[in-house]
Amino acid sequence: HVGTNDLKSVAKEHKNFPLYTMPAAGLNALGANAPLILIPIVFNEMSAGLFLVAQRLSAWPTTLIANSLGQVFYGAIANSSTTSVQTLRLFRKLTATLMLIGLAMIAVLGTAPIWANHFLGEKWANAGWVITILAPMMAVRLLVTPMSHAYNLHSKQRLFLLIETTRVVLTAGVFIFSMTANYSFLTTISLFSIFC
């Protein structure tokens, strides 16, 4: 039998989940979609289309691999019988594996200007350059995303909110700076890839 005091105790102990995780998840969604909102404002709809195609093509390996490995990593570190030594060993092994996959991903996506015209058609050939520019950012996300599950496990939701807030502010800052400096679309996407 679970009493009211038990529920209050659990709610108090885990208050950071709704207090920080929900806004962080909202900011994560905003940060992921902010370029698609800002590009047509700063540039034009064609640039937004190029970015969307490039983002989808460069993000699918990250999403597929990172989410799958992230769930495995979270399951392993959440297991009460896993020691800190085992967790560290798993973290190092996962990091090394993701770094190798990330380097291979950069190599493949880095050749996008060569194959984009063939696979996407002449109208979308410039998406290849955007894919190449986004490749290092996607490789970093591949490395970081599986580890993000640890925020909840170690009650670091406030840090997760801070990281997502910073990413949204940097994204807006890059586009505002590019607009005032009159930077080109590819220069702006390069800045976005570096800072966001």
Structural description of this entry:
With 196 residues, the protein is mainly alpha-helical. It is built from nine helices and no strands. The longest helix is centred in the N-terminal third of the chain and has 34 residues. The model has no long low-confidence stretch (mean pLDDT 88).
Q: Fraction of residues in helices?
A: over 70%
Biggest sheet details: none
Cα Rg: 20 Å
Unreliable runs: none
Count, helices: 9
Strand content: under 5%
For the residues shown, what is the average pLDDT? 88
Count of DSSP E strands? 0
Summing up helix and strand content along with how strands pair, one would put the structural category as mainly alpha
SSE order: HHHHHHHHH
Distance between the termini: 48 Å
What sort of overall outline do the alpha carbons produce when their principal axes are compared? globular
Protein topology:
Blueprint (H helix, E strand, L loop, with lengths): L3 H10 L2 H27 L2 H34 L5 H27 L1 H9 L6 H18 L5 H4 L3 H25 L3 H11 L1
Record keyword descriptors for this entry.
9 helices; 196 residues; mainly alpha
Brief characterization of the structure:
The protein has 196 residues and is mainly alpha-helical. 84% of the residues lie in helices and 0% in strands.
